[in-house]
Design brief:
This protein has 15 helices and 19 strands. By secondary structure, the chain is of the alpha/beta class. Strands 11-12-17-16-15-18 form a 6-stranded antiparallel beta barrel. Strands 2-1-3-4-5 form a 5-stranded parallel beta sheet, sandwiched between helices. Helix 6 crosses helix 12, helix 8 packs across helix 10 and helix 9 crosses helix 10. It is elongated and about 85 Å long. The two termini are 38 Å apart.
Length: 498
């Protein structure tokens, strides 16, 4: 489901013809060496493609419009090697529709103290050439990422690589289509939202279907396909019968296998990338999809519980952004459930009724069949596991009525202090930064939801940059958060984003 598209990023060097052809030859030579070095660094997840040096309004405008038309181009990296009069860039920047990175660097790392002369100074002018360019981008109010430092520095390369993932999120956002099977849970506020504004801001299509439209697909799945998938389950996961008859247990598991196959075909036929369900609207479903949804998330689909389409889209988006991260630890839908308020071990137990993505699992994954009090259907099968430890981000996209706000919380995932043998769900246990008391208060002040799109493989900065590119408010809760300052930030944002 998560296709690795052959995205590329264009490298555009700015200059002018005041210093003659020899200078431009060196500019092109330096740019080529820089691009080769970036591509050979191993720090970038996508290829950088060198474009001809830009020295005129016509060439700049054409390059940006060519980038707009190229489906493989996911962003434009700009750098001013020499002084590039910024009025030349106005039309191109005005028409650009791709994510933009301003790399403020220079070819040489060190001033050549013994040999430096005016020829060198004229040729290597990034220190003021980039300021001229930066001025016009700021004056035009164009959102961009700025990375400062020598292009061969691994930290600079890592920042470029990180931005590339954000840029992919910007590009892919407009492709996300969410299928709502049923509606939002009655009387719940935070899962509601303006679907029209979401399509305007993010490009998301959010459609609605009766659950029985999907049931038809589930019922059409052949017994042979179901049996084959059940065998895959039994070979891949530990089976915990909990005293149940094995044949009866297997029948419950087979229902989820049938749902996985049927729902995936339904989503593929409709070209949907995320799905929501609601336990109160199950129609002809024999069980609330549990194991089936977990497996679909593992394949790259987004999911949100109780009709939460905003979180479903964000889970899909974050899975796209994290695709191909080396040694990935996982991305999932989560829900805040219950606290541990013991001094020295405060934290939040994360789970959901059934649907936590197994990409976040640490160690064995088991299948259990247990009753579910909601939904009035037979006992659903689900995957059981505990999640990995380490730093992660939890995000909540909320609709404040006049604008969207993305809340980004840095969290530290920990091991559970003790086993929980009677809890039949996948779980994660984390403490929000800077600590539970401040983190939870800030989250509530910001209006954060009880559902989150969560990832070990993305950073706070990547999510903030995505929000900036989308033109929406973002607030961060991390180790530096202080409630007094946070309240002021929310007040200022209310004015800035109204």
């Amino acid at each position: 489901m998560l296709e690795n598209k052959n995205y590329k990023f264009w490298f555009c060097t700015g200059s002018q013809d005041l210093y003659g052809d020899e200078c431009l030859r060196k500019v092109a030579e330096h740019s080529a060496k820089m691009v080769d070095g970036l591509n050979a660094s191993g720090k970038l997840p996508f290829e950088v493609v060198l474009k001809p040096t830009l020295i005129s309004q016509a060439s700049i405008r054409k390059t940006f419009n060519d980038a707009n038309a190229d489906e493989e181009c996911a962003g434009v990296i700009t750098w001013m090697h020499t002084f590039s009069p910024a009025k030349m860039w106005i039309l191109g920047l005005k028409e650009n529709r791709k994510p933009l990175l301003h790399l403020h660097t220079q070819f040489n790392e060190e001033i050549p103290y013994d040999t430096i002369d005016m020829d060198f100074m004229n040729e290597n002018q990034s220190a003021h050439g980039d300021r001229e360019y930066g001025h016009i981008v700021s004056r035009m109010g164009i959102e961009r990422k700025i990375v400062v430092g020598h292009w061969a520095n691994p930290e600079v390369q890592e920042k470029i690589g990180s931005w590339m993932r954000t840029a992919i999120g910007v590009i892919e956002s407009s492709h996300i289509r969410v299928c709502r099977l049923g509606d939002n849970m009655n009387n719940v506020a935070v899962t509601e939202g303006d679907k029209v504004e979401a399509q305007i801001k993010f490009g998301w299509e959010i459609d609605h279907y009766n659950i029985n439209d999907a049931v038809e697909y589930v019922d059409a799945v052949s017994k042979g396909d179901v049996d084959a998938l059940v065998e895959e389950y039994y070979s891949k996961y530990k089976i915990i019968l909990d005293g149940r008859d094995e044949a009866e247990f297997r029948r419950h598991v087979a229902v989820q296998a049938q749902q996985e196959i049927g729902l995936e075909k339904f989503l593929k036929d409709g070209d949907y990338h995320a799905v929501v369900t609601h336990f109160g609207m199950l129609g002809g479903m024999k069980q609330l999809p549990g194991l089936a949804i977990q497996r679909l998330m593992e394949k790259g689909y987004g999911f949100g519980g109780e009709g939460d389409w905003k979180t479903a889209a964000m889970v899909r988006l974050m899975k796209i952004m994290a695709a191909g991260v080396p040694n990935a630890k996982g991305t999932s839908f989560m829900e805040d459930y219950t606290y541990n308020l013991v001094a020295g071990d405060t934290g939040i137990l994360q789970a959901h009724m059934l649907e936590v993505c197994p990409t976040v699992a640490d160690g064995d994954i088991s299948i259990r069949v247990n009753p579910l009090s909601m939904g009035n259907r037979e006992d659903p099968a689900r995957l059981i596991f505990t999640s990995k430890t380490g730093p992660a981000v939890a995000t909540s996209l909320i609709d404040l009525g006049n604008r969207f706000r993305l809340i980004v919380n840095a969290v530290d995932c920990k091991k559970n202090a003790k086993p929980m043998p009677n809890l039949p769900v996948g779980t994660c246990y984390w403490e929000p930064q800077p600590n539970l008391a401040v983190g939870a208060e800030a989250w509530i002040l910001a209006g954060g939801a009880h559902h989150t799109a969560f990832s070990y493989d993305l950073t706070v900065d990547q999510m903030v940059d995505w929000a900036a590119a989308m033109g929406i408010e973002a607030v961060v809760i991390d180790k530096d958060t202080k409630i007094r300052d946070f309240k002021n930030e929310l007040r200022w944002n209310a004015i800035a984003y109204r």
